[in-house]
């Protein structure tokens, strides 16, 4: 995906990266941000407050409205309760749609990797952790959440280009295509 070869010949200015936990959303968001010189917004760092306390629905939606109102961004995260706000603003949607077993393995590897330092895209006071509920979410993502995400895309962004990456190889190739230009 070369900047000059974008649909309509334009470079995307608002890119939404969605998908299962462990699918590589944050990594792809950073690559896209670097490639197109766009600010990267990790929604996890806005949704969670110290101690893994989630924002209530309306304050969260207000945060999403403010973030999505920007002229240029790469936004990484799911949060179905705000897709109606974020999807219509996107110029491009990137969906790493990988098998649950791979996402589980990546999430566990990420937990191990950041066990001492914490992830840079996490909210302060929210150390990387693995809980059964999180593992069940990943394991059931395709069955319970993917269909809702695709329905939201069809409803709120039917004409927005969608890049759906279904294999590790596709993710790697896409990642190479959007790596920053030397």
UniProtKB/TrEMBL annotation:
InterPro entries: Cytidylate_Kinase-2 (IPR052922), P-loop_NTPase (IPR027417). Gene3D superfamilies: P-loop containing nucleotide triphosphate hydrolases. SUPFAM superfamilies: P-loop containing nucleoside triphosphate hydrolases. This is Topology modulation protein. It comes from Actinocatenispora sera. The lineage of its organism: Bacteria, Bacillati, Actinomycetota, Actinomycetes, Micromonosporales.
């Amino acid at each position: 995906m070369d900047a000059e070869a974008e649909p309509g010949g334009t470079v995307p200015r608002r890119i939404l990266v969605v998908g299962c936990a462990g699918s590589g959303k944050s990594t792809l968001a950073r690559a896209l941000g670097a490639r197109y010189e766009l600010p990267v917004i990790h929604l996890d760092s806005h949704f969670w407050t110290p101690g893994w306390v989630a924002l209530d629905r309306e304050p969260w939606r207000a945060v999403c409205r403010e973030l999505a109102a920007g002229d240029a961004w790469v936004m990484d995260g799911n949060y179905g309760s705000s897709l109606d706000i974020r999807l219509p603003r996107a110029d491009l949607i990137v969906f790493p749609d990988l098998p649950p077993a791979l996402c589980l393995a990546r999430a566990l590897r990420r937990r191990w990797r950041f066990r001492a330092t914490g992830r840079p895209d996490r909210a302060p006071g929210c150390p990387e952790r693995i809980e059964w509920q999180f593992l069940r979410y990943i394991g059931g993502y395709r069955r319970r959440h993917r269909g809702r995400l695709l329905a939201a895309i069809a409803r709120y962004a039917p004409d927005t280009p969608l890049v759906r990456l279904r294999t590790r190889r596709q993710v790697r190739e896409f990642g190479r295509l959007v790596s920053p230009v030397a």
